[in-house]
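Lecture notes, unit on binding sites. The following record was shown on slide 14. It pairs a sequence with S-adenosylmethionine.
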Amino acid sequence: MKRHVDEGGVWKPTLNASPLFDRSDFFERMEATGHPALLQWSGRLREICDQRLVSNNDALFESWKAVLDRLPAVGRGSLDAHGEVIRVVGQCQSSDPTGALRADLLQLNPWRIGPYHLCGVDVDTEWRSNLKWERFASKVYFDDAKVLDVGCNNGYFGFKALAAGADWVMGVEPFLLYTVQHEIFRRYLADPAAIGVMPIKAAEIPADLRIFDVALSMGVLYHRKNPIGHLETLHGALRKRGQLILETMAIESDSADVIVPKNKFAKMRGIWFMPTVGMLKRWLKRIGFEEIEVVDVSVTDASEQRKTPFMPFESLSDFLDPNDAAKTIEGYPTPVRVVISAVRGR
Ligand SMILES: C[S@@+](CC[C@H](N)C(=O)[O-])C[C@H]1O[C@@H](n2cnc3c(N)ncnc32)[C@H](O)[C@@H]1O
């Protein structure tokens, strides 16, 4: 693998460093659009990937590399993302008779979103994300779309978007472990250059790109200290008439209100604002979104989110009041999950 540095705009390989994985093919795809804002951003992203995906002698980093190197040699075009489980089909040279592949994948826990299947191993993730996908997919026109998935985790929804006809997908995910999980499956796509998960935070997306046809922000807003800034970033990334799918936790009410938890909310740190559905709609409208439509409201249950061998930590049932499921463990109202579709109007 090559590493590049920017020297007066020229990208040159350097010695003594090997990236965890190479994103060049994706950047070439971005640059081929000829869009000036994308050209400029891809230069910066190459630099960031170079810094963040390069070996830093961290033992964990080396163990991730080793897992990637040991993956089954199944050819390109073997990833099937049409069904509920994203699976590598085709002939696996072995279907894990020794359990070594399962052990490798388990080592990369927690696996939050999925499910996946790879050569005899069911990666049973915390979330059955196919249920979330089914709540909004029919509302989105993915054909030939350029898709941005902010907080994409291991990119499950990006793979689904490609299978639904998207042209290319950029994921934004600051936690490297999840980008490694993504890379495990990306290599089996017929066209791996069509998707790239960037190791960046949402706040690093440049303002007012006006490029993407579809932006997904799912399971992210309630973690943001500045939720309105997050929605503005998404608005800016979309082209005129581009569509946002916003999925988040909210309090089920049409009145415009917001809870600012004293400390934790459903045992989660870093929850700053828990808005009502009415407040979410008001934020979106003020930012300049139109055609704001609540697509789905649901209560998550343990058939959708639970502890599994691939995610052995606390999960949903540990976060609610054991005597009253209408309350979180701290006594706040139990939130619903809402999916809202909105269109960039100007
Ligand atoms: C609850 S998960 C949601 C994953 C997926 N989008 C879904 O809906 O199932 C939130 C994701 O956002 C990522 N994340 C955390 N901070 C972020 C930030 N500042 N910008 C973008 N993503 C972030 C987390 O690492 C995690 O993968």
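Take-home: Residues 113, 127, 129, 150-153, 172-175, 178, 201-202, 218-220, 223, 247 surround S-adenosylmethionine (CB under 6 Å).
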